[in-house]
Amino acid sequence: ARFDIYDNPDWAKGYDIVIHDECSADVKEMPYVQRILDAHKAGVPAINLHCAMHCYRTGTNDWFEYLGLQSSGHGPQKPIDIAFVAPEHPVVKGFA
Q1: pLDDT tens digits, residue range 34-43?
Q2: pLDDT value for 79
Q3: Are the CB atoms for 14 and 43 separated by under 8 Å?
């Protein structure tokens, strides 16, 4: 899936945070992906949900470097340990 909002270089202007939940594994156009990444490189934080982990397989590592991991497929479906590095941050405050 492609989203028209990402055609605008200023797509993230005015947002405090972006939640990525798109499922766009077949989108490979680097200018499009780079516009998404540029907003985050400029400081707009993001939360990336499940599908976003599998997106933008452009043949580069750009998306996966942004995520901090490379997801090439589903492994065993087991509980995932989560550690909150900033437990008082407003995004996660009160989470356990």
Answers
A1: 999 999 999 9
A2: 87
A3: no
